[in-house]
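seq as requested:
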Amino acid sequence: MSTDSAIRWTHRALPLVTGCDYEGPGCRSCYAPRWAYRFSHHPNAQLAARYQGTVAKTASSRIVWTGHVRYNDQVLHTLLLVSRRKQLRWFISRDGDLFHSQVTDAQIARVFAAALLRPDQQLILLTKRATRARSFLADPGSAALIQDEARRLLEEVPEKKRCLLAQHRLQEFGTSNSILPMANVVVGFSAEDQRRFDERWVEFREIAAAGWMIATSAEPLLRPLLLPSDYLALGDRVWLIVGGESGPTARPVHPAWLRSLRDQCVPAGVLFFVKQWGVFTEVALAGAVQANILAGTTTEELVGYARDCIVVWPDGRSAVPERSAPWWAAQRFGADRETVRPGEGAVLMRRVGVASAGYLLDGQDWDRSPPLPAAA
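struct tokens:
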């Protein structure tokens, strides 16, 4: 199974942890259960085993997590043995959460051990379990645990391949806590709305204070976000990734939300990255139609414009214009089927697919990312 990634902000993605639980509204249309179900039926038995038992199909044919989590230890060797000529960004873990309660501290430590042995590679860790992440990183015993796991990893690598690893780092640091924070590890949290951001930033504020590079994945972005001053004050020690939702039940992202985050981040020096619009794009309306929307004209007048469209308000409410789509489409978009008066700030979004929607914001590719480590 290739670890090359189509995710715009990373080069490689490792299925280290497979399986998860639902942690909020952002999980509703997550790709990972469908991905896991597909690979659990793969003809390659070794690959299928990584996903066995993590997902199930319900009577209504929905693919859901079972709550069982697997830790696929051997995939770390892919990172350890990559050529030293390649400085890459690695997303860990693509199909689960490294800080899930079923993942042990020793298993978490192995990821940081891999980072210790490969300082020329950048690791991105994203979690919804911010409390566990803070607890692990603040634990005085974590540094020694990481070094113990680094020694174990070193023993697992064939001797002729050990030249790829920075073995000297184990001797340099001894059992000191000075290995933390790690310059080549970015620790981040997901936040689909203000509530989830505020809850997780409480924990990550302490992680940032300890010197770690912080990332936030606001994808899928379901509501506007107001970033706190102490978050913005971190400048380029923060990486904010934003994006709309993909998948068959995707919800649209209002363009004003992305513009607001850009306007908050750029003056503060925060690294701002637009991953994708998702499956919806803003409809370029004729002036008269746009004026009608802003004036609050009923959306019945938009019929003909609005096939496969949805009206979205800045506060996150959405509705399918009356008669613009059948009832099943209203359910599919997670919207209310009603005649509505859009009012100020409402936009019309059309479902076109991820590739067609793209990632440009006002004609610009916002792709600022943390610099990669230097070659070892």
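Residues 323-341 have pLDDT under 50 and may be disordered.
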